[in-house]
């Protein structure tokens, strides 16, 4: 059917559709003006080629800045104003290692007994009386109501000062929440005190390594041994952290005439002499030099050993010869017994971070102070007047020593009468020098507290006002179980630090 509209009108719409807006639209031609004879060559042909994109508009270039001399707005940031005084040299370290031993806000425990020599004798006599079936002199020490096991005993001011001087307290032990320092008497405490008194009587040397899991109280047990030594009038020498000797943070120098070469750490030795003098001032003040020594400085004859420690602490260059002279005097006949302590033993059973002149690593046993301690721990040197050499392992930040772990296992096998554990033939990390040194020592393994000891500790916390809960069988059992069967560090964390 033919359309009634004009073809011309259809070819010119009001809103024309351009090819740019819709490229697929085919534009109708005007039939009146586009009629071309057949076979003409001017007709537009249909193409499917895609249209070309237009050339993108060029981004105008940035205009040049203002000419020299033109004024621009410049807002300067204000410099940081230091309102406080910068910390002095060593102030940060002193703050980090600061030990707070008292808290005036804590309640004072009225019935707290102080540790003294008489109490130590009572512990040992009570243990011997229990073993022999005797009922005299606190025979109910073990587990009895009248005994000392499971009780907390305080430390006198003089004992606290001596322990502080040898850096026996640690920042992680929570001393600052109680009125004054105190110690829990454990089964191991009584056993260790008995062995110390036996060594004094028989003039023997105890070589003991304190072993146990993290938080079992190894450092506190060594602190308890040092407190016992102080109240009994012994001389105490303590190395609080073995890593301070082996991790290359102090100056060192080769000692001439030593084969193999030994290295002295003069600054550390001077500090050690200062600690020995302050901690044992009462004992050393009554002891005088009885021999003449070839020292780098003039030392008056007949001076006290306390004065000798002061001379060595004042001048680090002569600290090591002074220390050797002091040790020779302390080991003479008739001198008091000696207790030597070292924490983090595994640092001493490997190579140190120091370097020899040929840039080879120096073994820890080639450091003079460490070699002095290892000789007494291994048994190659003894204490003529009796004493103890105590070392504690560390499970928190110390490296793993395969030789030390094997030696502890073998020592426990010998003590228990079991078959000796053999070394792993495929293990390459054994240290030959550590193996030679760790051949003859005993192990005291610390485990969790008993429920009696845990209850005594929690009752002391409640009397001090830091534990605000009822201490009964149920609460003690709960804390004891949550702490992995009485791990003392975990009991402290769950009872004092953790809040539900």
Describe this structure in words.
This protein has helices at residues 7-10, 91-96, 117-132, 157-165, 187-202, 218-231, 243-246, 266-279, 281-284, 305-314, 319-330, 368-378, 402-416, 432-437, 451-464, 473-482, 488-497, and strands at 152-154, 182-184, 205-212, 235-239, 253-254, 263-264, 338-343, 351-355, 361-363, 387-392, 442-446. With 500 residues, it is an alpha/beta fold. Among the domains are: 203-446, no CATH class; 452-497, no CATH class. Strand 8 (351-355) and strand 9 (361-363) form a beta hairpin. The longest helix is centred in the N-terminal third of the chain and has 16 residues, at 117-132. The model is unreliable at 21-26, 28-41 and 131-146 (pLDDT under 50).
């Amino acid at each position: 059917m033919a359309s009634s509209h004009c073809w011309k009108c259809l070819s010119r719409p009001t809103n024309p559709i351009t090819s740019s807006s819709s490229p697929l639209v085919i534009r109708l031609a005007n039939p009146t003006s586009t009629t071309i004879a057949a076979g003409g060559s001017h007709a537009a042909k249909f193409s499917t080629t895609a249209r070309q994109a237009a050339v993108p508009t060029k981004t105008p270039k940035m205009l040049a800045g203002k000419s020299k001399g033109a004024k621009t707005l410049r807002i300067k940031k204000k410099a940081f104003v230091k309102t406080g005084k910068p910390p002095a040299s060593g102030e940060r370290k002193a703050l980090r290692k600061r030990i707070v031993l008292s808290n005036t806000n804590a309640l004072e425990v009225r019935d707290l007994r102080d540790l003294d020599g008489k109490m130590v004798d009572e512990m040992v006599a009570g243990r011997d009386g229990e073993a022999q079936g005797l009922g005299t002199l606190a025979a109910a020490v073990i587990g009895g109501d009248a005994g000392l096991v499971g009780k907390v005993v305080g430390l006198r001011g003089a004992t606290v000062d001596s322990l502080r001087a040898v850096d026996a307290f640690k920042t992680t032990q929570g001393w600052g929440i109680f009125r004054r320092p105190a110690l829990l008497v454990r089964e191991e405490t009584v056993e260790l005190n008995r062995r110390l008194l036996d060594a004094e009587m028989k003039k023997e040397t105890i070589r003991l390594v304190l072993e146990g899991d993290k938080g079992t109280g190894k450092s506190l047990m060594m602190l308890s041994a040092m407190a016992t030594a102080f109240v009994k009038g012994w001389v105490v020498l303590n190395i609080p952290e073995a890593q301070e000797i082996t991790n290359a943070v102090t100056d060192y120098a080769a000692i001439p005439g030593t084969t193999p070469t030994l290295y002295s750490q003069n600054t550390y030795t001077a500090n050690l002499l200062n600690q020995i003098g302050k901690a044992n001032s009462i004992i050393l003040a009554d002891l005088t030099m009885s021999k003449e020594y070839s020292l780098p400085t003039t030392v008056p004859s007949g001076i006290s050993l306390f004065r000798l420690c002061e001379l060595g602490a004042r001048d680090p260059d002569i600290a090591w010869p002074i220390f050797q002279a002091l040790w020779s005097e302390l080991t003479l006949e008739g001198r008091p017994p000696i207790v030597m302590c070292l924490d983090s033993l595994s640092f001493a059973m490997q190579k140190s971070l120091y370097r020899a002149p040929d840039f080879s690593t120096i073994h820890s046993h080639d450091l003079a102070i460490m070699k002095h301690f290892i000789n007494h721990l291994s048994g190659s040197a003894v204490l003529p007047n009796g004493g103890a050499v105590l070392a504690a392992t560390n499970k928190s930040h110390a490296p793993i020593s395969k030789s030390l772990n094997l030696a502890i296992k073998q020592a426990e096998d010998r003590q228990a009468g079991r078959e000796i554990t053999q070394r792993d033939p495929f293990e390459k990390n054994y240290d030959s020098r550590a193996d030679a040194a760790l051949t003859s020592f005993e192990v005291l393994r610390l485990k969790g507290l008993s429920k009696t000891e845990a209850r005594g500790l929690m009752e002391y916390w409640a009397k001090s006002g830091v534990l605000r809960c009822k201490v009964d069988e149920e609460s003690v059992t709960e804390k004891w179980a949550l702490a992995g069967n009485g791990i003392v560090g975990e009991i402290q964390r769950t009872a004092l630090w953790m809040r539900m």
